[in-house]
């Protein structure tokens, strides 16, 4: 993961020879008050060197210890210093319950101080705690929203900080950087070849001047009728219920079915479930095989038993 981040920042630094400021926005992971925004005003002495922070006079709360202990800030610092050695860094932690409507004043202030020599960076984890195939569906939904500047849908994406991505996208749009460029997209489940582990996914992307081609994918999750949201917030996690265009009930299956529909394919991922928990291992593979084997073979259908996917070619 660190290697990917380094290659990504190396690429960005080559296209930005003059970068004097880096504004680093990230989610507040640990504060008891998740409805506030905090900044740092102390310099740090890291093992890789001295990090000089600056103040932007944004009239925000100062909490140096909070920022110093949040991995969303300290994880990318060494690489930012390596590839932008002359830049002053301005970290901002945004509470995960900060309303989107309240972000407009911060956005306006950032636009007034961040110009051609300034880089706005969002340090945000994407999907968490879900099997790889479901995380992939959630990320497809998020990437579509980032590409299409669909600001009305940011409150339904499955990431650590929709607020940070909202600010980044709004800032880019207002600066006429309307082309979304995907550098890399990683999924720990696919990297390890494990369909059962709880994954973490990461997206490395950037906006440039120009326009993106609109994305028209549709993402949906169909769940068994006995799946109860109040119970699954404890077992599956609340993140399960975000990150798609549609949720529906299918009483005929004991599977969670996550679907991505594009102009060329329909990909359905099947996740067996019992007692509000995902089934894993050999039992899961057996249930998927038994179900897939009763589906008639077709030249336009590919059955991926290991990952539990049915892939329909629409052409």
Output mean pLDDT. 90
Outline the biggest β-sheet.
7 strands, mixed
Oligomeric state of the chains in view: single chain
H/I helix tally? 9
Distance between the termini: 36 Å
CATH superfamily of the domain at 1-123: LigB-like
Order of helices and strands, N to C?
Answer: HEEEEEHHEHEEHHEHEEEHEEEEHEE
Residue runs with pLDDT of under 50 for 5 or more positions? none
Percent in strands? 25-35%
Overall 3D shape: elongated
Spatial extent as radius of gyration: 21 Å
CATH class membership of the domain at 1-123: Alpha Beta
Percent helix, as a range, is: 25-40%
How does CATH name the architecture of the domain at 1-123? 3-Layer(aba) Sandwich
Name the structural class. alpha/beta
Number of strands: 18
What does this structure look like?
The chain is an alpha/beta fold and 315 residues long. Among the domains are: 1-123, Protocatechuate 4,5-dioxygenase, Chain B (3-Layer(aba) Sandwich), CATH 3.40.830; 218-313, no CATH class. It has nine helices and 18 strands. It has helices at 2-15, 64-68, 71-83, 103-113, 132-148, 162-174, 188-192, 229-237, 281-293, and strands at residues 21-27, 37-39, 44-46, 49-51, 61-62, 88-94, 118-122, 128-130, 177-187, 199-208, 210-211, 218-223, 246-249, 255-261, 265-274, 277-278, 301-304, 309-313. α1 crosses α3 (71-83) and α4 (103-113) crosses α6. The longest helix is centred in the middle third of the chain and has 17 residues, at 132-148.
């Amino acid at each position: 993961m660190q290697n990917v981040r380094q290659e990504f920042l190396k690429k960005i630094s080559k296209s930005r020879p003059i970068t004097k400021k880096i504004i680093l926005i990230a989610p507040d992971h640990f504060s008891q008050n998740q409805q506030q925004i905090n900044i740092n005003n102390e310099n740090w002495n890291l093992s890789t060197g001295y990090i000089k922070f600056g103040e932007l006079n944004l009239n925000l709360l100062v909490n140096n210890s909070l920022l110093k202990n949040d991995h969303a800030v300290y994880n990318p610092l060494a690489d930012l210093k390596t590839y932008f050695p002359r830049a002053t860094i301005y970290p901002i932690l945004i509470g995960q319950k900060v309303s989107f409507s309240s972000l407009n004043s911060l956005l306006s202030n950032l636009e007034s101080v961040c110009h051609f020599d300034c880089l706005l960076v969002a340090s945000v984890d994407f999907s968490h705690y879900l099997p790889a195939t479901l995380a992939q569906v959630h990320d497809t939904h998020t990437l579509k929203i980032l590409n299409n500047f669909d600001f009305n849908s940011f409150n339904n994406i499955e990431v650590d900080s929709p607020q940070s991505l909202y600010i980044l996208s709004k800032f880019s749009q207002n600066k006429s950087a309307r082309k979304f460029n995907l550098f890399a997209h990683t999924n720990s489940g696919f990297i390890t070849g494990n369909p059962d582990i709880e994954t973490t996914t990461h997206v490395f992307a950037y906006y440039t001047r120009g326009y993106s081609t609109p994305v028209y994918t549709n993402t949906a999750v169909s769940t068994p009728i006995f799946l109860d949201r109040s119970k699954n917030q404890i077992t599956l996690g609340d993140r399960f219920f975000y990150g798609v265009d549609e949720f529906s009930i299918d009483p005929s299956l004991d599977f969670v079915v996550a679907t991505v529909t594009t102009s060329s394919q329909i990909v359905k991922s099947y996740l067996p479930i019992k007692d509000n928990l995902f089934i894993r291992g050999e039992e899961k593979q057996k249930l998927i095989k038994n179900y897939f084997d009763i589906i008639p073979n077709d030249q336009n259908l590919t059955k991926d038993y290991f990952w539990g996917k049915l892939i329909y070619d629409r052409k």
